[in-house]
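[SOLVED] Need 3D model of a two-part complex

Original post:
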Amino acid sequence: MPDLSINFAGIKSPNPFWLASAPPTNSGYQVMKAFDAGWGGAVWKTLGVPVVNVSSRYGGVNYRDKRLVGFNNIELISDRPLIDNLREIEEVKKHFPHHAVIASLMVQSREEWHQIMRDVTSAGADGVELNFGCPHGMCERGMGSAVGQEPDVLRTIVEWVMEVAQIPVIVKLTPNITDITEPARAARLGGADAISLINTIQSIVGVDLDQFAPYPIVDGKGTNGGYCGPAVKPIALNMVKNCAQDPYVQLPISGIGGIENWRDAVEHILLGASSVQVCTAAMHFGFGIIREMTAGLEQYMTEKGFHTIYDMVGKALPNVKHWEDLNLKYKVTANIHEDKCIGCQLCYTACEDGAHQAIGLREGTRVPEIIEENCVGCNLCSLVCPVENCITMERTDDGTEHLTWKERTLAGTIPTDFNDERAGGLHHWVPEPTAALGKEKHKTLPGKARQLGTPASVVNDLVRKE
Amino acid sequence: MAEYLPPTSEQEFHANFAQLKPRMNNTEALYESSRCLFCFDAPCIKACPTGIDIPQFIRQINTGNVTGAARTIYEANYFGNACGKVCPTEVLCEGACVYNLQDVKPIEIGRLQSFATRQVVESHKYLFEPGQPNGRKVVIIGAGPAGISCACELRALGYEVDIFEAKSQPSGLTVHGVAPYKITNEEVLAEMDYLQAQFGYRVQYNSPICSRPDLLALEEAYDAIFLGIGLGKTNALLLPGEERENCVGAVEFIEQLRREHHQILVGRKVIVLGGGNTAMDAASESARLGAEDVILAYRRGKDDMGAYEFEYDLAKSVGVKGLFNVAPVEIVGNGRVAGVRFIRTATVDGQVQALPGSEFVEPCDMVIKATGQAKQTSFLSLIPGLQLDGKGRIVADAHTYQTTNPQYFTSGDALNGGAEVVNAAAEAKVAARGIHHYLSAR
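Solution:
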């Protein structure tokens, strides 16, 4: 049985799954319920000077019939008095001494930071997370992402906190910045014990087509919110990786962004996270999802022979390279397994219109065929194919050659002028532009109704002839 | 034990004849439309006789443009709602869905289609209007799927259109001949009202055209005549005892059923003669009317039946039993039907042969003959120069459906010998274009 427990910058937790600072950690009631369900830790809904929230706070992005592939909120930090929160933190810790309770904090002055650090420490919090990420509302008041976007300010505030800190300090970073490693380095320089990322991404989640207003709508108006949910995972993974690979950051990372199952969590961990935080998925499906997450993680670790989380932290990092270090000699070609093909021809139209015209249709069958000499191995067909393992990408080079852009640059063999003979696509067949006209129009605009034309178009044709 | 008790009220009738393709709610339509792959050169379109751009309308439903979806459907097929419910989608669009090849349930195209069309029909959201009047007049005989479809298209092209209908309602077999569990009368007629309100053709009901003087008057008053007359009564079997009480034709039985619902009387033990889709319908309907035993008797083997497999499965599912390789030789009884004398048969080299000495009587108290409909040859002989083929079908140009009398055009069962509503709808659109071409060139 693998050991799921972690010691994250001194914060101990029975497993790496924490609830992120958000509505699910608004109260002691919710946090106790979550721990009872199996969560390892919880980052308390951000404490500070209590706010007043608007009604109508969340907006969702649905994809076809799938709800909340993206989620956004315009809710602010805790609107409950600090004293109530402190009392409940104390009570939770009494019931769950071995679970991690981390207090998320957001205040302004040095005195306030010192005061609230002392308050949460004496309430029994295992650590604190400085909220330098909130991208809506609070940033307009000079807090949240306004801090995270200014590395010097961030460092100063971290230094204030460290002056009194007796428990581990995590700095939560905003992704609303060009280079995430800059605030991460500032956190390190300020003396922080760990970082967590990403906070939400500034967003407009959708526009109401009748009211002409952004969601969520507050009395006919809206504002930008913070974006999260499954759709943000790729952005989060990249930023986690950037921080994990940066030689000047070197801090434990709590990964946040688009985690709703064990796979998402493992991905964050393989790219350098050693704890993970979840919010949207818990808001969507409730705390019960933790059962699948821990079970899946255990199963994966058992199959891979990982005894502890730390056996896998950052394991994918050596394989994340800069583009210039990738092997230009590596070639893959698409292969359609005819026995599995159902003839939807999505690969055909995707390659034809969206890639390199490397798939053809044949008379008498709906199974498309790869035109190997045109195939650049882009993967597009295999991505659009609805049948599992129907289109596979097969390696076609012999694996003996290795040449990167960096090496070509050093050797002076890269294209350097606009019409360079060494252009990668120079000898690749491209159809004449006019060959596009009318091609398969009857197939892309199908239906007999269109072939017949509308009654109005028929009448107009006759009028023109006359 | 019968699967169904005889319905004694309209409510019980509708319970016994519950819709096979019930209306989708918004959520179901969203889920189902989300599954569509949006195939390139989609097989479902090719399988649809009217060539509806199915992936397009499904995508429109999915993006919340239900009105646009209905327009896509109606542009191709004026019987868009009816066809969504009565089409044999299992062998047409849904049968062609690529999901079948993956052993995944095909998209429920028929139900999605009706989901979109019913919304515009019920909300009276009009999508079409008549074209600029061109001063020409066309008369249509028969307000069935062919006649109504042709009328809509001609009105859109600017023609004045009059329809003469022998019965009191439009839509022909859609309301009189389709099994009630496929579509209700109300739903059929609502679509008819919806079409007429938009296109403004005139229909005269209870106005059969049956004599040479009738036709002559039309020939003189109109520029072209469209024959949407369908087929006639059930073919006579020419068997002894056929005239006995409770020996009825399937077409007549179904028409009465659609008109009278639970008030129709069905036998306790019914024998349906035939192996086509109408036979399957009559058998299913008898069972749903509470007949204790329903036997489907066919002179060849099970696999030789003309009916779609899913139609036979449907009949079996309500308790209908098959009796194969038997030919009726006499309807026995004393005034009323008391049974059918059959002789066993064998099919040798494609020919049905009776096996001497194998006769037996299968008792019953009702016989439904589903042995095909007669062609309206005597009426058609009143039209000068109109040729019929060897099977009594009207001969017409394949691209214009102009008959051998140039003033006459045709579509539907009278042309194709008996097919689906969707075939009539498809052909009638082409015929309307044929009429337009013919009259524009004059």
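Edit: The radius of gyration of chain B is 23 Å.
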